Amino acid sequence: MLQLALLFLLLPSPTHAGFDWGASCSGGNGTFSQDLPTAGETSVIGQIPTGKWSLTIKLSSLKDVDVQLFDMSDSDCPLGKALIAYSETPGCSRGLLGNNDGSAETVTYKGMSISYSGYYGVSGIPGKEFIKISGEVLTPLEMRAFAFEAGTAAVAYEWGYTQTSCCLGILPCGPFSFATMVEKDKTVEIGEIIVGKKDLRITLEAQSDVDIQLYDKAAAAVVTCGPDGKAIIGYFDGEDACKKGLLGNNDDGGEESATYSGLDFSYSGYSGVGGNLGNEYIQIEGVTNSVLNMKALGFAAGSFTVNYEFYESPPLGEVPTSPSIHWLSHKNNRRSRNARCQFTSTPSDTLIVRRGGPPADPAFEVLIFAGANNTTLEPSMISATITGKVAAEEFSGDPRGKEVDFTVEQYPETMFTQVVAKTSSNRFFLSGSFAANAPIGEYELCVSLVEPVIDHPDKQTRSKSCTVLIVLVNPYHASDLAHTSSSNLKEYVEGESGLVWQGLSDNNNGFGWDYDQFKYENLQVATDRLFRLHVADRGDLVTVSRHLTYSIGEDVCYGKWGGGSYTSGRPSGGYTCNNSPSSSNKCVTPDDWRDTTALFALHVAVKKQVQYCQCFVYAALLTSIGRSLGIPTRPVTTFQSAHDADGNRAIEKFFKVDGETGGFNPVEDPPTGDSVWSFHVWNEMYFGRTGGGEFTQERCRELGFSVRDSKNGKCADGWQAVDATPQELSDGKYQMGPASIKLVRKNVDDEGSDNEFVISEVNSNLHLWVKVEEGGGEEAYGEGVGYRLHLEKGFESDAWGDEYNTIGLQISTKKKGPISDECKATDDTKDCSKELDDVTKYYKAKENSGPGLPTKLSHRLKYDLPEGTPPDEYYNPVSGGSHRNLRRQRRAQEDIAPTITFGNLGVAPGSSSTPLINEPGHYYSSAHVRVNMTNTGTVSETVLCSIKVVALDYAGRNYSNVVHEESVTEVVGAGEKGACTMSVKREQYREFTATYLDTDLEALEINEVAYQLKFITTAIVPRTSQIYLNEQSKLICTPKIAYSTRSGGVVCEGTRGSTAISQASALAHLLTCVPQSGTSAAGYNDGVCTPSLNVEEECYDGGDCCGESCWARNGNMYELGGGGGCSLRTSAGMRMRGSSYTGAGAPSFGESICPSLVSNVTSLIASDLSSSCLDDVDSASCKALLSNVFCKDENYNRALVDCEEELRAETPLGTNNRPRCSRRTEAGCRCKKTWSFGMDDDDVDEVTFEDWSCGNPDGDEGGEWCDIVVGSCSTDDGKSGLAFGGGWDYCGSETTKIAFTAEEEMELFEELYLGEESGNLKVMSVAVEDRPHDHDDHDHDDHDQDDHENSRTPVPFGYLLGGLVGFAVVLFGAFWFCKIIKTKGSGGGKNLLSAEAGIELK
User: Among 181, 731, 1234, 1370, which lies 20 to 30 A Cα-Cα from 404?
Assistant: First the structure.
C-alpha cells in the first residue's frame, strides 16, 4: 500500500470502465466493445477524467445507436447534465447537442470545444458516430449510448500528449504529499520511483529521528544484491556494499553528494536539515534510468510526511518551440513573506505579494521558458514593468464592470527591483522585490521579451505577457512601518472574526462580525478603494489610511440615521429598494449586517453604495479592508462619544429656562450642531509615523514627550484613529485621521490628521448655555438677552455628576484571543465582558482630565458671557469633585444658604442599565422618575420639579421628538424628606417606537425605532435659587419574538442586547391581564385590547389584552382558536402572528411555517458542498449535515417536532438518516449547549455546564435539569410546561418536583405585591448605587467588567405605598426571591435601594 502511494501520486490517472487512460502524460489509444442488450435503454460506456487532451471517441454499430455525453459535476443535475443527448423534454436530460436536424454540430462549454457527428451518423449512416473535444477536458464526463435497437457497439478512442506545463517539462509536477508512520527500529516501504522522472526532490518531515533509505532496483543490482537492490542512501554499520549506501555513512551526518549511474544524488545527511533529526531530503539531478525504491528507518517511532516534486521528460517533438511566461502563482504564494495571505478563490495567474525585504528574498519569481533549442535569448532581453490605474476624482461606486475614466501610471522605479538569472539553456527566472514603503494595491505586471531575428540582426521580435499583481503591506517584516508584535499580527491582521461593542455606557455588549478579509473577492473591493490615489502615494500609510475613510463612505456604504424606511424607497443618489428574492437592489437595515462578504457582494452587484450603513458597519468594513491590505486594524467603540461640530473641544448644550416652572427645555435648533452619541465606532490602524519625516526626536520633545518616547521620532507611532463614518468635512471631504492616539492623550493637534476632532470625541468639556424665557426666572439668571454660560464655567466631566454620562467612557475593543461561548450566545445569557479590552487610558488621563485648549483661536467660541468674565475662564479646568459644589456668582444680592439637599435620583424600571420594553402593556414599558430631597433648614421649602422626555437616535439627535412634559410642586417641611415623582407610559412614546401591535400606527422598522428616551429633569428652590439638573437615558428594547428564556429575560431586536426582567412582575401581567382602558376594536387578535372579547382560555382577546400581548405564547407558535382563545397547535397547522418573527421560515400571519422551513432546509443541503446527500442520503457526511441542521441550529429546533412529515416528503430526511440529537429532557426539549447557574447574589459560585449536558447545581430533589432551547420541546407550545415560562426542564425520570402551580404563583404574587391593592399595581425599581471603579484603576490588559454586571440590578420599590410599606415590600421581595431560586428562577442581584446621584447646582 505504501509502495503504491508514491506511484499513485506520481502517476495519478486511474482506469475507468471500458476506457484505459494509462498512467502518464503520454497520449494513447484503445478499443473495446460494448453490449447494448435492450432496445430503448441507455448504457454507460465509461468515464472520461479531466486532464485529457485532444480527445476523439468513435462508436460503430450495425444497429441504430446514439452517443450521449454528460457533465457529472453539475450540482443542479444529480444524474448528470446532458451535453450530447436527444430529448424532447427540457431540463438536465436534453443535450446542448443532438437536438437539431441530425447533422454535425459544435458547441463551446466550460472552455471546451465539443463536436458531435449528429444522430444521423457519419456520411448519414446511423450507428456510426463520433465525439471530439479540442484542448483539455476540464470537467468529469460520462459517455453513454442509447440503443434504438439492441446490438453491440465498437468503441475506438485516442488522445494526445497532455499539454500542461508539468507534462511539457516546463514546470515541476507537484508538490505532492502523503503521511505515514514507522515503528522504532523498523523499516517501512515508502514507494517506488519509476523511470523517466527528472530532477526529483523528496523531503521527509518527522518529529522523531527517522532516516531516509534509497535502493537501486535495476536488474543488475537485484542480481548482485538480492530483491532489495543496492543501497544508494542508507546508514549501515558494516562493509556490505549492497547495504551500505554511497551516502549516509559520513562521520557528522551532514550534507553530502555522489554520482551514481549517471545521476547526481544529494542527501541532507542523517543529522537532518539544520541539525533537526527527522527532517531530511533527497535531490536527484537528471532523468531516472532505473526503478528506485525509497524506505524509512525509524531510530525512533513516529509519524512523518513525505513531500515531493519532479519534472517530466517529454518527447522532443512535444516541447514547445516558442517562448512562454509562467507566473508560478502557487509557488509565490507559499513564500515565507506571502504565506499568511492565502486568499481563497484567487485566480490561478494572480500574484499576491507583500512588500519589503531584501532582493535575496524576493517577493515573487517568474519563469521564462525560452522554447526548445532557443539559443538567442539572454537575461538582458527580459524585463518587467508594473503599471496602475488611477480613477478620476469624480468617480464614485464600483470601478469594475462600468465605464470609469482611468489614467495609467508607472510604478516608481525606486520602489521595485528586478533581477533576471539564466538557470539552464532554456530557463530564466525573473525575481522581483519591493521597498518597505512601496505602493500597495492592484497593478498589472507585464514581462517582455525582445529577441533578435536569426539572420536579420537589425530586426527584433517582441512578446509580452501580463497578469494581475497585488502588493500588500508587510506587517511581518521589521522594515515595514506596519510591523508589530506576533500577538497583534494574530489578532489584528489574521483574525477573521471579531466583536463590535454597541449599547449605552452602562448597558452594552459585543456583537459578532465576520471580517472575511482573506476572501479574494473582498480583497478586490479593498484594492478598489485605492484607485483614486496616484500610484506614488499608495505606499504612505498616512495617506492610504486617510483615503480609505473617504472611499468607503463615497463608494461602498450609504449612511442613514433616524426616520424613514430602511427597506423601501429611494434615497438621494441611491437606488430604489427592491427586496424580492431575485432582486440585486436590496436594502438592509444596518443592524442586520453580520459579515463583510454579504455587504461587499451587494456593493459589487449594485455597483454603488450599499443601502444602508451606520458607524458600526463602517468600522467593521474598514477592519476587513485594513486587514486585507495587511494593516493591523481593529474597531473601537466609544460610549458617550462627542460630536464637536465647531471645533472648540466642548459640547455646547442650549436650554431655554421656563419662566414659570424653571424647567430646562433643550433648544430644538441650537446655534451649533454639537451632539453626544450614545456610542460611536471608529477604527484604529497600527503603523509608524516616522517614515515621512513628519515626526523627529526634536519635534517629539517639543510636544512634551520624554526622551525615551521621543527616540527616533516615535512619539506618534502605534495605533492611529481613523473613521469612515461621514461626520464632518476635512480638507473638503468626509474623511478622518489618522490621529495618533499618543498625541490625542497629550491633547496635541496634528495638522491634517483630525486630532482635534478625536480629542473632542473622547474628552470634550461640557458647556450649558441657558436663556430665560419670558415670564420670570430673572432672580436665578439675571436680566439680559442671549445665552448665558451656566455657572460661568465649563465642566470637564459630567455636569450632573453621573459617571456614565462622562464624555469618552469605556473606549472598547476586543481583547486578543478566542471568543467565548458566553459571548457567542444569542439569548439573554450573552455576555462579552471577558472579551472587553477597555483602552480608555490610552486616549486620555484619569478624569477629570480636560481636553486642553483648541488649536485655532477662532474655534474658542463664546456666546454671551457676562461682562467682566476673564477671557480664559470658559476653559479653566475644574478640579476633581469640585463641580459638585460650584456656586454661580450672584449680582446685587448676598448668597442665601441652601436648605434642600438633593439626594437620590431613580429612573425605573430596574437600574439605569435596564431598558424600556417596547411592548404594549408590558410591566417594563413605562418609566418612572423620582427625585429625592431633604430639607435641612428651619422653614418649609417649595420645590418646583419639571421633566422633559425626548426620543433620540443613538447619535443623540431629534430633540424635537418630545414624548412628555410634566411639572409638579413638592412642599418639604423643615427637617423632613420629600420626593418628586413622575411617570411616562408607552402610549406617550409609541409613535416613535411603533410595532405591528400598534394597529392604528404604521409599524416602524427596527432602525427607525427611537434608540433611547432621554429624561431631562430640573428641580428649583425659588427662595434659595438652588437649581438641580439631571439627564438620564433609557435604551428602548423591542423584544424578539420566540426568544423567551428561563430567566424571564428579553432579547432585543437589532443589536440592542438583552436584559433580565423581574419574573414576578412579568408573571403578574401574564395572569391578571388587566384590560387597557379606552381601547376597542372589531376583532380578535388585532393588536388592540377589546375587553368584551375576553375569553376564559387566558389569552384575553387573542392576546391583545395581556400585559405581554401573548408574545411569549404566539412567539412560540400558538395559534388562535375560533373563539378567540389560544388553542393547541398541531404539526400541520403551525401559525405565526405578525411579521416581526425572524426565525426559520418567518411566514406572514395565517401561513403554515412548514413550506418555508422545508425550502430553507433544502437550500441548506444543496449549498453544503461537503455533503453527499444528493448522491447518498445514508452517507456519513449527509447524516452529519442533517444533525447540524436539526440538532444544533436553533432556527430549526422545532423542525422534527412540527414538520417531520413534510421534511420526509420533500428533503433527504428519512428513517435511516434521521439524526439522534443530544439528550432530550422529559418534555422532549433540547438542553442549551452552554448554560450557567449562580447560587448567590454575586454569582461567585456560578456553575457552567457545557455540551448540552444536564446538572443539579442547586440540589433539586427532582434530580438533574438544564436550561432548554425554548421552542424545541415536544409539547404544543415548545416549552417544558414547568414554572416561569417553561425555560428549563428535568432530565431524569419522573420524580417529585418542587414547582408552583399557576394558582400558587398567582397567590404568592398577590400576597407580595398587591395585597389589598390587587386592582392597582404600584411598584417600581431604581438603580443600585454601586458604581464600577474608574477605568484607570484597572490594568489595560486585565480590565474586569464584573462591576458593570453586578452593580446595577433591579429591585422592587414600593414608592407610592409609603416608607414602611416600601420596606415591607423589600422584605417580601427577599422571600419571593428565594422561592424563585428554588423553582429554577433567575439568579438575581443585590436587594439594595439607591439611586443615581444628580448634581446640586446653587
Answer: 731
Distance CA 719, CA 626 (A): 13
User: Radius of gyration (Cα) for the chain, nearest Å?
Assistant: 39
What are the grid coordinates assigned to 159, written together?
Answer: 488522445
**Pair 900, 1044: CB distance under 8 Å:** no
> How far is it, in rounded angstroms, from Cα 809 to Cα 796?
13
Write the CB contacts of 150 (distance below 8 Å, at least 6 apart in sequence).
36, 37, 38, 39, 63
Give the pLDDT confidence score for residue 814 in this predicted structure.
95
Q: How are strands ordered across the β-sheet holding 650-657?
A: 664-666, 650-657, 765-772, 788-789
Q: Which residues contact 1207 (CB under 8 A, 6 or more apart)?
A: 1157, 1158, 1161, 1199, 1200, 1213
In degrees, to the nearest 5, what angle opens at C-alpha 501 toward C-alphas 1060 and 838? 105
Provide the Cα torsion 1289, 1295, 1298, 1302; round to 10°.
70
- Read off the amino acid at residue 360: A
Longest dimension (CA), the chain: 125
Q: Is 1218 exposed, middle or buried (0-12, 13-18, 19+ CB in 10 A)?
A: middle
The pLDDT of 903-912, averaged and rounded, is: 68
* Adjacent-strand bridge partners of 284: 200, 265
Rounded CA-CA distance 324/382 in Å is 12
Alpha-carbon span 869 to 873, nearest angstrom = 7
Written in H, E and C, the secondary structure of 1319-1350 is: CCCCCECCCCCCCCCCHHHCCCCCCCCHHHHH
Whether 674 contacts 649, CB under 8 Å: no
**Tens of pLDDT, residues 682-708:** 999 999 987 666 788 888 888 888 888
Amino acid at site 875: Y
Pick the closest to residue 1038 from 1063, 991, 1005, 1065 (CA basis).
1005
Q: Which residues pair with 193 in a beta bridge?
A: 292
Q: What are phi and psi of 569, to 5 degrees?
A: 85, -175
How far is 218 from 232, CA to CA, in rounded Å?
A: 12
* Residue at 779: amino acid letter: E
Which of 1380, 1391, 1388 minimizes the C-alpha distance to 1357? 1391
Quick one: which H or E segment has residue 1163? helix 1154-1167
Instruction: Check the CA dihedral 474-476-481-482 and report its sign.
Output: positive
Identify the residue whose cell numbers are 544524488: 265
pTM over 0.85: no
β pairing state of 1012-1021 and 900-908: unpaired
d(CA 1146, CA 1156): 8
Name the phi and psi angles at 1275, rounded to 5. Answer: -75, 170
CB 271 within 8 A of CB 277: yes
| Residues 491, 822: Cα–Cα separation, whole Å | 20
Q: If DSSP codes are grouped into helix, strand and coil, which group holds residue 1059?
A: strand
Distance CA(832)–CA(820), nearest Å, equals 8
Between CA 838 and CA 835 the distance in angstroms is 10
pLDDT band at 546 (very low <50, low <70, confident <90, very high): very high
The pLDDT value recorded for residue 1282 is 76
